[in-house]
Design brief:
Blueprint: E1 2-7, H1 11-20, E2 22-25, E3 28-31, H2 35-48, E4 53-59, E5 66-72, E6 76-81, E7 84-89
Antiparallel strand pairs: 1-3, 1-4, 2-3, 4-5, 6-7
C-alpha cells in the first residue's frame, strides 16, 4: 500500500497523482505500486509541490511495518531512533505584532 498526502498542492500535481492513485479524501491519495513507480511519484511531488508540503508512506519490511518521507515546510520531521523511525515536531513559531 502506498499513501501520499499533500497540502496546498497545485491542481496539476493532484492531477498527476490522480493518474496513478485514487484520491480518497481531499489531498489523500492511495494505491498499490512498485518501488519504481513510488520513487517516480515522489520525484514528481518534490518537483511540483511549490509552497505546499507532502508526506508519503508505504508498507515495507521494517520493525514498524512501514516507512515514510516528508517534503516541504512541515512541523513534522522524521527522526530515526534505534532503527525505528519516529516523528518529531518543530516548535510552533508565532509572530507577535504590536
Amino acid at each position: 500500500m502506498l499513501v501520499i498526502v499533500v497540502e496546498n498542492a497545485p491542481p496539476r500535481l493532484k492531477g498527476r497523482l490522480g493518474v496513478y492513485l485514487i484520491e480518497i479524501h481531499c489531498g489523500v491519495f492511495v494505491g498499490d505500486h512498485s518501488k519504481r513507480v513510488r520513487e517516480m511519484l515522489w520525484e514528481q511531488v518534490k518537483a511540483f509541490i511549490e509552497d505546499g508540503n507532502a508526506v508519503m508512506a508505504w508498507n515495507t519490511n521494517t520493525e514498524s511495518g512501514f516507512d515514510f518521507v516528508t517534503h516541504g515546510k512541515n512541523r513534522r520531521i522524521p527522526v530515526e531512533m534505534d532503527g525505528l523511525k519516529l516523528v518529531s515536531f518543530l516548535p510552533d513559531i508565532k509572530v507577535n505584532v504590536t
